[in-house]
Design brief:
Largest sheet: 6 strands, mixed
Number of strands: 15
Order of helices and strands: EHEHEEHEEEHEHEEEEHEEHEH
Number of domains: 3
CATH superfamily of the largest domain: ACT domain
CATH architecture of the largest domain: 2-Layer Sandwich
Shape: elongated
CATH topology of the largest domain: Alpha-Beta Plaits
Radius of gyration: 23 Å
Structural class: alpha/beta
Strand content: 25-35%
Distance between the termini: 65 Å
Length: 319
């Protein structure tokens, strides 16, 4: 897509160039349809676009079903105040091996590939291109584009790239479906400065970053009990170093539920009392639409009834 001519408030940023998995995620964002898109080089630039007002939102990868959390995204969200996750999107991850026209699989000796893509295709490459060399690329699309760069093209005969790469670059596909895991999925989030929380749908997720109050035995258990005692399931628990000293960690956590759910709100209050720093990243609809099973004692009515029971006692009424 061409560089935007419209105002920055209409623009959406994504990790480019065209043809990346991030662009595929952005295509799922209904609000971005017909709006200008801005291709950026890294997560930091995408978030800077949002904070500076160059973009109304940015789509960034936060988790992969094979490799786990995307640490660059998690660290950036923990450091940058004033941004919220307002949506999530799932993109199946598949790879093809591409080369310049006229190149055969038997000709391949060296392969361009992003390190994550290489890790997910290494077994196929080792089986079909034994003893090959690997040149790391900055992105999946850059790996393919380098084959057509006169300065770098001679360094590799093939590249690992996303399906559909030939829509953007004049290359030949040597092999399809070369990823090790056919069920691999990357989860992307839409980040905005808009602090308004999307309405709860009954199939929601809440993301927070929490720091432990001190480095002691049982501190993590105390943190996790804030969720266990309220019947809240965690979809993600990722530890990241705070960076000020050894042994100090923050935790990026995804919870099943919405901040407007009584159990989730109560857990956040518990976290606030427990932790020196809690960063609320957002409550938003789950991409898979899966509603959590909530036991009766953790439903909103149970919390409301308990508060009313206590009110009656304090007021001197029959309990």
């Amino acid at each position: 897509m061409a560089e935007p001519d419209a105002s920055a408030s209409d623009t959406y940023s994504y990790l480019g160039p065209a043809g990346t998995f991030t662009e595929a995620a952005l295509k799922q964002v209904a609000a971005a349809a017909g709006k200008p898109w801005r291709s950026v080089n890294n997560v930091g630039e995408a978030l800077d676009d949002v904070m500076s007002g160059r973009s109304v939102g940015a789509v960034i990868a936060i988790e992969n079903s094979v490799d786990g959390g995307v640490t660059a995204t998690q660290d950036a969200l923990a450091r940058i105040p004033g941004v919220r996750i307002i949506g999530e999107y799932l993109v199946p991850v598949d790879f093809v091996l591409v080369a310049r026209h006229g190149t055969m699989l038997a000709d391949v000796r060296t392969v361009n590939a992003h390190p994550v893509a290489y890790g997910q295709t290494y077994r196929w490459l080792e089986d079909h291109v034994p003893g090959h060399g690997h040149i790391p690329a900055s992105s999946n699309v850059a790996a393919a584009a380098a084959l057509l760069d006169p300065a770098a093209g001679a360094l590799a005969e093939a590249a690992v790239a996303p399906p559909g790469i030939t829509d953007h670059h004049d290359l030949a596909v040597l092999a399809e479906h070369i990823g090790e895991n056919p069920f691999a999925v990357t989860r992307f989030v839409l980040v905005s400065r808009d602090l308004a929380i999307p309405a709860r749908t009954g199939a929601d997720k809440t993301s927070v970053v929490v720091e432990l109050p001190d480095d002691r035995a049982g501190a993590l258990v105390d943190l996790l009990e804030q969720f266990a005692t309220r019947g809240i399931n965690m979809g993600l628990l990722s530890s990241r170093p705070i960076g000020d000293e050894l042994g100090r960690y923050r935790f990026v956590i995804d919870l099943d539920g919405h901040v407007h759910d009584e159990r989730v709100a109560d857990a956040l209050l518990g976290l606030r009392r427990f932790s020196p720093r809690v960063t609320f990243l957002g409550s938003y609809p789950r991409a898979d639409g899966h509603a959590s099973e909530v036991q009766a004692r953790y439903r909103d009515e149970a919390f409301t009834e308990a508060r009313e029971w206590l009110r009656r006692i304090v007021a001197g009424e029959p309990g």
